[in-house]
TrEMBL record:
Pfam families recorded: Lipase
Protein name as catalogued: Lipase domain-containing protein
Classification of source organism: Eukaryota, Metazoa, Spiralia, Lophotrochozoa, Mollusca
Organism whose genome encodes this protein: Elysia crispata (lettuce slug)
Subcellular location: Secreted
Keywords: Secreted, Signal
Length: 356
């Protein structure tokens, strides 16, 4: 018994040490590291300051040595909704003095939704998802707008900025827990493309700060370029929450015009229609040049990539996306997926809205 307890303590300590190596509070050494680290002093970051290292001593070379920008340069905004605020949002920011004035209810479920590259918040798809969620249950729904950090054409700068946004969400969640008694297990984070990895960073931050895991993260076709060949510290991973589910709708290499990750990275990974090309979408044949034609997350070149948004939104009330031949499966793709699901699933959809 003591040996088992010792192993558990050792494992927890090792995990904390590894995270502390990758997510660092300010230590005054920014000038020593020069171009390989940026330290941001901000009340909206964990402990009021955080350093982001991009040296080869860490795994964060995936941004091609672009440093994350600090919160004051990104103008990241959080829009709060519940059933009393369905049309007009309430802007919130971290810091217990700020959130104390918000209508946040710690007893309810909490859902964060983040967009990806060259998108904005609250985008129409985010508002549609919010409306479906509130139609089912009165909850805290927070839409994340990081459009300044996600703006093109420099994809790798946006990749770097996901770390800042994730840290800010982690700080907000810590404040919600401390001020409102919000249980972390009642938190559900969902992000599209780069937004998926933002939520992975947020989950890592919460664990680093509190030793607790949030309830669920849903990755909506998580971005593949700059992530899928890197370690779990850099991307969304099954370790980032108690339950991590992924909807892969554009799981091709960038050379084949794919924007999503090809690999299973969650507890449950759903590959609708094989996960590569979605019915009703035009053939995407530009190869790596498709990145240059990427106008927004609903552009023609990103049809399959954005299909994950509609599938998840429609799964809340309108559709069931069961694995083939298993009607009523608890492992149906989307909002109502059971947290016990493990493995890869291959549901079929139709080619027109609502795709079921």
């Amino acid at each position: 018994m003591l040996k088992t307890l010792g192993l558990i303590v050792f494992y927890f300590s090792a995990c904390q040490a590894a995270l502390n190596h990758h997510f660092m509070d300010c230590d005054g050494n920014d000038s020593i590291w020069g171009i390989l680290r940026v330290c941001c002093n901000s009340d909206v970051l964990p402990k009021g300051c955080q350093c982001f290292d991009i040296s080869d001593m860490t795994d964060f070379t995936n941004s091609m040595y672009h440093k994350p920008e600090c919160p004051e340069d990104l103008n990241i905004q959080f829009f709060f909704y519940d059933r009393a605020h369905t049309e007009t949002s309430v802007k919130i920011s971290a810091g217990q003095g700020n959130i104390a004035q918000t209508p946040f209810n710690g007893a309810r479920k909490t859902m964060f939704i983040a967009h990806g590259f060259i998108d904005y918040g609250p985008a129409p798809w985010m508002l549609a998802m919010k409306d479906e969620l509130l139609a089912v249950e009165d909850m805290n729904v927070i839409l994340v707008d990081w459009q300044n950090g996600a703006a093109g054409p420099n994809y790798y700068q946006a990749v770097a900025n996901t770390r800042t946004v994730g840290a800010m969400i982690g700080r907000l969640l810590e404040d919600f827990n401390a001020h409102f008694g919000m249980p972390f297990e009642k938190v559900h984070l969902a992000g599209h493309s780069l937004g998926s990895h933002i939520m992975g960073y947020a989950g890592k931050e919460v664990f680093r700060l509190t030793g607790q895991k949030i309830g669920r993260i849903t990755g909506l076709d998580p971005a593949g370029p700059a992530f899928e060949s890197y370690t779990h510290y850099v991307r969304l991973d099954a370790e980032d929450a108690r339950f991590v589910d992924i909807i892969h709708t554009d799981a091709e290499s960038l050379i084949s015009s794919g924007f999503g990750t090809r690999y299973s990275i969650g507890h449950a990974d759903f590959y609708p229609n094989g996960g590569k090309h979605q019915p009703g979408c035009p053939e995407e044949t530009l190869g790596i040049l498709s990145m240059l034609s990427f106008e927004d997350e609903y552009s023609t070149g990103a049809c399959s990539h954005s299909r994950a948004l509609d599938l998840f939104t429609n799964s809340i009330r309108k559709c069931r996306f069961d694995p083939p031949g298993i009607t009523g499966s608890p492992c149906n793709m989307g909002f109502n997926a059971d947290h016990s699901c493990r493995g890869d699933y291959y549901p079929k959809t139709t080619s027109v809205q609502p795709y079921c």
